[in-house]
Every structure is written in structure tokens, then in C-alpha cells.
Design a protein that fits this description.
The chain is α/β, with parallel strands linked by helices. The protein has helices at 14-25, 49-55, 89-104, 123-129, 134-144, 158-174, 188-199, 317-320, 322-328, 366-380, 386-397; strands at residues 4-10, 30-33, 45-46, 74-75, 203-205, 212-216, 219-225, 228-237, 246-259, 272-276, 287-293, 304-311, 333-344, 353-355. The protein folds into three domains: 4-45 and 186-247 and 342-397, FAD/NAD(P)-binding domain; 46-81 and 249-341, Guanine Nucleotide Dissociation Inhibitor, domain 2, CATH 3.30.519; 91-179, Guanine Nucleotide Dissociation Inhibitor, domain 1, CATH 1.10.405.10. The chain contains eleven helices and 14 strands. It starts with a strand and ends with a helix. The mean pLDDT is 87. This is Rab GDP dissociation inhibitor. Keywords: Acetylation, Cytoplasm, Golgi apparatus, GTPase activation, Membrane, Phosphoprotein. It comes from Sus scrofa (Pig).
Length: 400
């Protein structure tokens, strides 16, 4: 291990694994280590089910009705990769006109603007133009555009329209949902990017204790593990490795629920995402629910896993999450966790230590992707070029 690397990565959460893969593809010499013997870090998939009971200190073993423990792969922080009710007949017509407008919108073609200036007109005015009601506005802003607050309403509408356009195009591609979810749970994703890194020469070491991050004159120079020092020019890590360099900005409550039934009023769907907009429950933060099932090889036959999450706003977080849990009743077993939201204290440009954010309450990857792109830009000084990454991947795997 006494070598010099361009980048050392600590932690195998999805953010760290994606950045490890990207840096390896870009020709960097990468060493990737984790103190844990498994991939995923904070966002690991837990199997068998007995391990989930132990992790949450639930006494006893899972009942026989839950099937074989090894049939379960339960994500601690589930997120979908990038939908009835709310509207009456006339509202649906107005909303359809709005969606047609969004589908035709091209920020480079003024003929598609229909009197809207995408750089100046607030999104609130666009909703007004199509006479959309408050319930539909809540649904559109939070479930389609995936905003977590209503601040966007008074911002120029271009970004919001493009977000809704992305949702619509993703939905059109797969028919029933704009989201993807990997079989056997999200734990497969970090391993996938680990394999990508390895193909390009990256070195992985699991179950590796990290004794010290060595900083000299304010800049990282290496990592000490089991008496050996690996030197590096840059370091990527999750907050758990540098507790003195992060600060707490809030908390998230997550409740993992095992069900023997699909969620009511979802047409017996074997997977779904529900977003309860903040306005609907008199909160500052949305409440998120995602459900997956045996169809995704994450649960025993006939069983469902639903996870509810939200940003904590009071001293009674379990009461805050109750509107989501009421949608899931009856619940066979639940596992409750409250975790801190941690963010880096600085950008890392001086120390060259680049720290990811802990995962927020959302059940989609938009904020995680933003964090990855932000870290990449701070490390390299340039924007992440997805097309270039895709071209390099095709050089190895061939065209899709």
C-alpha cells in the first residue's frame, strides 16, 4: 500500500463509488478503501433479514411468515433512479394543455414560448397562465419537478419547465414510471461502479481500518492504515471519516415498513413512489414514501417493503411521519431510524479533501447527482461531461 495515488476514496456509499469510477475512467490512479466489509456505506442493502433485526435491535428472530431471511435485500436509504388522483375532469384538461406546452418547449426556440420569457417569467405566472389549482401546483412542483420547497415559484421558469420535461420524457420511455430500480436493491449500484473503477485500474480494499488522514501544511498528503501510508494528491470521503470537517444542518427520520399487501389506491402496484407535498400536511418539508417488493428480488414472495422519510422539524419526528404511515397500514414490522444531515464545512479546494453530503429525505437521486457533479467540479475545475463518460464506457463495453 506504500504507493502514491492521484485520488484516495474512503467509504463505499454510492456517491463515493460513482466518483471513484469517474476518476478511474478519467485516467487517475485511484485507491478506494472502506472500514466496512461490505459495499454501500450508509446506503447499504441489508441481507439476510435477520441482520436487519439485529441492526435495529429488534428482539427475537423474524417470524416464519416473512419467509427465508436470504430472500430479503433491504435498502437502508432507498432512492429511485430517474401516478392518479388530485384532478377533476376540467383540471385534467387544463393540466393536459400545460403538459403539451412543456413537451413542445425548447429554450432555444422562441416560437415555443407562447408569450413566456423563460429567463424572466416566474413559474408562478406560468401556472396562472394555464389556470392550474393549488393541488395541481403542489403535485407538479414536488412530484414532477422534484423541488423540496416552494422557492422555485418566484424563480425564472426555464429550469422548472425542463425538469418537468425530463420527467415526462422518462415516463414516455418506460410506459408506467419515469423511475428505475435495480434488482436486489441499491447495493448493486456501488458494486457496479466499483467494477467500472477496477476495469480502469482502480484498487479496492474493503474491511480496511483507517487510522489517520495525514494533512501537511493544510493539504492532504495521504492516508494511514494498519501502519502503512498511501500517499495521494486528492481525497474523497463520506462525513463519517472526517467528523471535525463537517457540520450538522438537520435530521432525517426514516421508517422501513414490512407489509403483506400493496399500498391502497395504487392499483396493486408492486412498486411506487408517493410524495406528500408540504402544503398538504402543513409542513415545511415534503414527506416521501417509496415501495418495492418481491418483484425486485428484495423481499420474500408476497411481501412489500415501504420506506417513509422526511426532514425532522419538531421534537416528535415519529408524529411528523404519521401521514405516510397511515397510508401503509396495516404494517407487519417497522424499523425506525433518525440520522443527522451532515455537510462539509468548506469546499475542499485548499485541503483537497472533498466530502460528500449525507443522504437527504428524498426518494430519488436528484440531490445525490447534484452533490456528485459539485464535487467533480471542485476537484477538476470543469463541469462533468456525461457524453464523454459514456463514450469512454462504450470503448470498453461497446455500444448499448
Amino acid at each position: 500500500m506504500n504507493e502514491e495515488y492521484d485520488v484516495i476514496v474512503l467509504g463505499t456509499g454510492l456517491t463515493e463509488c460513482i466518483l471513484s469510477g469517474i476518476m478511474s475512467v478519467n485516467g487517475k490512479k485511484v485507491l478506494h478503501m472502506d472500514r466496512n466489509p461490505y459495499y454501500g456505506g450508509e446506503s447499504a442493502s441489508i441481507t439476510p433479514l435477520e441482520d436487519l433485526y439485529k441492526r435495529f435491535n429488534i428482539p427475537g428472530a423474524p417470524p416464519a411468515s416473512m419467509g427465508r431471511g436470504r430472500d430479503w435485500n433491504v435498502d437502508l436509504i432507498p432512492k429511485f433512479l430517474m401516478a392518479n388522483g388530485l384532478m377533476g375532469l376540467f383540471e385534467k384538461r387544463r393540466f393536459r394543455k400545460f403538459l403539451v406546452y412543456v413537451a413542445n418547449f425548447d429554450e432555444n426556440d422562441p416560437r415555443t414560448f407562447e408569450g413566456v420569457d423563460p429567463k424572466k417569467t416566474a413559474m408562478r405566472e406560468v401556472y396562472k397562465k394555464f389556470d392550474l389549482g393549488q393541488d395541481v401546483i403542489d403535485f407538479t412542483g414536488h412530484a414532477l419537478a422534484l423541488y423540496r420547497t416552494d422557492d422555485y415559484l418566484d424563480q425564472p421558469c426555464c429550469e422548472t419547465i425542463n425538469r418537468i420535461k425530463l420527467y415526462s420524457e422518462s415516463l414516455a420511455r418506460y410506459g408506467k414510471s419515469p423511475y428505475l430500480y435495480p434488482l436486489y436493491g441499491l447495493g448493486e449500484l456501488p458494486q457496479g461502479f466499483a467494477r467500472l473503477s477496477a476495469i480502469y485500474g482502480g484498487t479496492y480494499m474493503l474491511n480496511k481500518p483507517i487510522e489517520e488522514i495525514i494533512v501537511q501544511n493544510g493539504k492532504v498528503i495521504g492516508v494511514k492504515s494498519e501502519g502503512e501510508i498511501a500517499r495521494c494528491k486528492q481525497l474523497i470521503c463520506d462525513p463519517s471519516y472526517v467528523k471535525d470537517r463537517v457540520e450538522k444542518v438537520g435530521q432525517v427520520i426514516r421508517v422501513i415498513c414490512i407489509l403483506s399487501h400493496p399500498i391502497k389506491n395504487t392499483s396493486d402496484a408492486n412498486s411506487c413512489q408517493i410524495i406528500i407535498p408540504q402544503n398538504q400536511v402543513n409542513r415545511k418539508s415534503d414527506i416521501y414514501v417509496c415501495m418495492i417488493s418481491s418483484a425486485h428480488n428484495v423481499a420474500a414472495q408476497g411481501k412489500y417493503i415501504a420506506i417513509a422519510s422526511t426532514t425532522v422539524e419538531t421534537k416528535e419526528p415519529e408524529k411528523e411521519i404519521r401521514p405516510a404511515l397511515e397510508l401503509l397500514e396495516p404494517i407487519e414490522q417497522k424499523f425506525v431510524s433518525i440520522s443527522d444531515l451532515l455537510v462539509p464545512k468548506d469546499l475542499g479546494t485548499d485541503s483537497q479533501i472533498f466530502i460528500s453530503r449525507t443522504y437527504d429525505a428524498t426518494t430519488h437521486f436528484e440531490t445525490t447527482c447534484d452533490d456528485i457533479k459539485d464535487i467533480y467540479k471542485r476537484m477538476t475545475g470543469s463541469e462533468f461531461d456525461f457524453e464523454e463518460m459514456k463514450r469512454k464506457k462504450n470503448d470498453i463495453y461497446g455500444e448499448d
